[in-house]
Amino acid sequence: MKRNQTVYRLSLAGLFTALAVVGSFISIPVGGSKCAPVQHMVNIFGAVLLGPFYNVGIAFTASLLRNLLGLGSLMAFPGSMLGALCCGLAHRFFKRLSLTCLAEALGTSLLGGLAAYPVAKLLMHLNVAGTFVYVVPFFLSTAVGSALAFFVLAALKKCGILPHIPVIPGK
Fold it and tell me: What is the pLDDT of residues 135-160, one digit of tens each?
């Protein structure tokens, strides 16, 4: 039984990673970053179905692949990973979709936006205006992705499909 759970989780994580990478073709360039709303939608799907730690792994792998393929910037790492962790933890403790989406938006925009500043300054050698310069662009991106995830998951729940998607206990 344990092996089947691992295969299921890894398969779903791979599917979500692929969705995030392919979805990065839909991006909004803002300053030195490329805001990808599909990544934020994937973060919420991963939080609901896999939990916080797989979710951070998905965000890291998707960010790495996006950078290797030239589809993203280094700022994808702090934005997506902090948002994935926050929404994963929120869903684990509260089990409410609205709070999961809010945690994704706040984690990505506020924490990820603040963490992107040193990445831009020190690693990308960008001349950024201030510490909070990425908070608003990250918020715009995550707001779109979070709203999209909320509506998709709410519709799946209303139609009775979401309860039939296996969620592994102890995620």
Answer: 988 898 898 899 999 999 999 989 98
Place of tokens 């609205």: 98
Task: Name beta bridge partners: 29.
Answer: 34
Backbone angles phi, psi at 26, to 5 degrees: -95, 90
- Local structure of 84: helix, strand or coil: helix
Rounded CA separation 149/42 (Å): 8
> How buried is residue 82: exposed, middle or buried, by Cβ count under 10 Å (0-12/13-18/19+)?
buried
Token couple for 21:
């990478």
Residue 11 CA: distances (Å) to CA of 25, 68, 168: 22, 22, 13
Residues 6+ apart with CB under 8 A from 127: none
Half-sphere exposure of 121 (CA within 13 A, CB side): 13
As given in the structure block, the two tokens for residue 165 are 């998607």
Q: Tokens 């179905």 correspond to what residue? A: 49
First vs last C-alpha separation in the chain = 15
Q: Which amino acid is at 60?
A: F
Helix (H, G, I), strand (E, B) or coil at 143: helix
pTM metric for this prediction: 0.88
